[in-house]
Amino acid sequence: MGFLSNYPLWSAIIAILFAQFIKVPIQLIATRKLNWSLMTSTGGMPSSHSAGVTALTTAIGITQGFHSPIFAVSTVFAIIVMFDATGVRRQAGEQAIVLNQLAAAFYKFVEDAKDLQNRKELKELLGHKPLEVLFGIITGILVSVVIYYIVY
């Protein structure tokens, strides 16, 4: 299987790109604000990490068999990635929110700090809620199956 015809690889890449793109209209519907930076940010609905690893695992299952050792490896990899997305990365985002609030309160009390506009806030949208991961999983499976039936 050549690089350009590597169905599992392209399924994963397309699922990631699709999940990142679809965040923009979902956010637009939810907040009435157009935010193109979501296409390159972490976190949000759906989880592109979950979509990518699920598309990869689904494509491997379709091409190599759901009983194959490589499918087992990919499944464990996907579980670890999704667990991390909802656990460690989400908690880091929660901590960033609190730290940003503390920094804002500190700067509010510091009267002689003139250059407040140049301070850099920590990134708060790092991880995913379980629902975001679930929709990432659904996105990954659907993208992988659609690509399989279109190309193969």
UniProtKB/TrEMBL annotation:
Cited InterPro entries: DUF212 (IPR003832)
Keywords, comma-separated and alphabetical: Membrane, Transmembrane, Transmembrane helix
Membrane-crossing residue ranges in chain numbering: 7-30, 50-83, 133-151
Pfam families linked to this entry: DUF212
This protein's name: Divergent PAP2 family protein
Native organism: Heyndrickxia acidicola
